[in-house]
Write a structure and sequence with these properties.
Helix content is 62%, strand content 2%. It is mainly alpha-helical. A two-stranded parallel sheet has the order 1-2. Helix 4 crosses helix 10 and helix 10 packs across helix 15. The protein starts with a helix and ends in a 6-residue tail after the last helix.
Length: 352
């Protein structure tokens, strides 16, 4: 691990200044093409959802069920990854469109947008991979660093991961309630009660939409419609779990202690984002379906820049890493997935 003091001595302010220039270049260049991109993705997602819902309404016919389930699965993936995640980061607030704004967007996910923005945008992106500060480092359940205290329950974390993957939106919703913060005295019971009310309201609406309203509208196709909705949600959960874990937990991704961030400069913050993330290689369609989080390094360095710009930024960031001798962790999905499982298994047992 490169200690921040060492990187400060070696690089001074240069890394931060060069990455700031990349950010400034994109801010100056964003405009009509970017707005057209996000509106095209929204139109595509809504068309896929409408087509999927319509096909599932007559899903007693197996081809209609397969087509409807496939379209709805892709629609939910797009909404969750390229739309919800990125819009809630404020990536499109600069457009001034109230319909595509982090303050107004509510996504097709169990956890309310406001709760997620607190745990993800504020806590995770501020304290990326800092043990005892970044709750996303293992989501409280997993041990992902030798600096985390081992407990006997960690022996079962491979099983936890199997269970979490198809139920990912439930896991995130419960995580966003921060029950561990209540137990530690960092969050009041009153705040938990308010958050729980928000979660139950949102979850009731989501469950009623997918498992009551649309199946009832399908009439004779109610049961296959319900199963199609369940399948689409499961596919979306499996995909988002895979992309998020492979962007954060491959074996070469570094973790940090609070000592490492004492007096952290802008350049050191950038360094931590780069070393605490991993990219996933793939083509344009893969990157759209992953919310462009295959460029996780660039996303962590510039979380509020338009996601369609990450592919443009990535070569410049990689060149800087090569220039300054900073590891740039990247690889195909299969390799990052295997490496992530290796990390889960390695830290399930005691020792560093």
């Amino acid at each position: 691990m490169t200690h921040p003091a060492a990187i400060e001595t070696a690089l001074g302010k240069e890394l931060g200044e060069e990455l700031d220039r990349i950010r400034a270049d994109i801010i100056a260049a964003r405009g009509t093409d970017d707005a057209r991109y996000i509106r095209t993705v929204i139109a595509t997602q809504r068309s896929l959802e409408a087509g999927g819902r319509a096909a599932l309404a007559v899903s007693l016919f197996p081809p209609a069920w397969a087509a409807g389930t496939a379209m709805l699965s892709v629609a939910k993936i797009l909404e969750n990854m390229e739309l919800g995640h990125n819009i809630l980061h404020g990536q499109w607030d600069w457009m001034g469109d109230p319909a595509i704004h982090s303050a107004t967007w509510e996504w097709d996910f169990l956890t309310p947008a406001e709760a997620w923005k607190h745990t993800h945008n504020h806590l995770h992106h501020t304290w990326t991979n800092v043990v005892d500060r970044d709750r996303d480092l293992g989501y409280v359940v997993f041990r992902m660093s030798g600096d985390q205290r081992w407990r006997p329950r960690h022996l079962a974390q491979p099983l936890y991961n199997f269970v979490l993957a198809p139920l990912f939106e439930w896991g995130i919703a419960l995580y966003d309630l921060e029950p561990d913060a209540v137990a530690a005295g960092r969050k009041s019971w009153r705040s938990l009660a308010a958050d729980l009310t928000g979660f139950l309201t949102k979850a009731t609406r989501q469950l009623a939409k997918d498992y009551v309203l649309f199946p009832l509208l399908a009439g004779p196709s109610a049961l296959p419609c319900l199963l199609g909705n369940l399948t689409a949600n499961t596919v979306r959960n499996l995909w988002s779990h895979t992309i998020i874990f492979c962007g954060h937990f491959p074996g070469d991704v570094q973790t940090f202690t609070e000592e490492h961030i004492d007096g952290e400069t802008r350049g050191q913050w950038y360094l931590r984002q780069i070393q605490g993330s991993a990219n996933i290689e793939g083509g344009p369609l893969f990157h759209v379906l992953s919310g462009n989080l295959g460029h996780q390094i660039e996303h962590h360095a510039f979380p509020d820049l338009p996601s369609n710009r990450y592919a443009e930024i990535a070569p410049r960031v990689r060149e800087l890493c090569e220039k300054y001798g900073i590891p740039y962790v990247t690889g195909p999905l299969w390799r990052q997935y295997g490496s992530t499982w290796g990390r889960i298994l390695r830290f399930a047992v005691p020792g560093k």
